[in-house]
Amino acid sequence: MTKFSFDLQATDGRARTGVIHTPRGDIRTPAFMPVGTAATVKAMLPDSVAATGADILLGNTYHLMLRPGAERVARLGGLHRFMNWDKPILTDSGGFQVMSLADLRKLTEEGVRFKSHIDGSTHMLSPERSMEIQRLLGSDIVMCFDECPALPATEAEVAKSMRLSMRWAQRSRDAFGDRPGHALFGIQQGGVTQELRAESAEALKAIGFEGYAVGGLAVGEGQEAMFGVLDYAPDMLPADKPRYLMGVGKPDDIVGAVERGIDMMDCVLPSRSGRTGQGWTARGQVNLKNARHADDPRPLEEGCGCPGCRNYSRAYLHHVVKAQEIIGSMLLTWHNLHYYQVLMAGLRAAIAEQRLAGFVADFHARRAEGDIEPL
Amino acid sequence: MTKFSFDLQATDGRARTGVIHTPRGDIRTPAFMPVGTAATVKAMLPDSVAATGADILLGNTYHLMLRPGAERVARLGGLHRFMNWDKPILTDSGGFQVMSLADLRKLTEEGVRFKSHIDGSTHMLSPERSMEIQRLLGSDIVMCFDECPALPATEAEVAKSMRLSMRWAQRSRDAFGDRPGHALFGIQQGGVTQELRAESAEALKAIGFEGYAVGGLAVGEGQEAMFGVLDYAPDMLPADKPRYLMGVGKPDDIVGAVERGIDMMDCVLPSRSGRTGQGWTARGQVNLKNARHADDPRPLEEGCGCPGCRNYSRAYLHHVVKAQEIIGSMLLTWHNLHYYQVLMAGLRAAIAEQRLAGFVADFHARRAEGDIEPL
Question: Which residues contact residue B45 at a Cβ distance below 8 angstroms, ignoring those fewer than 6 apart?
Answer without folding.
Answer: A307, A327, A330, A331
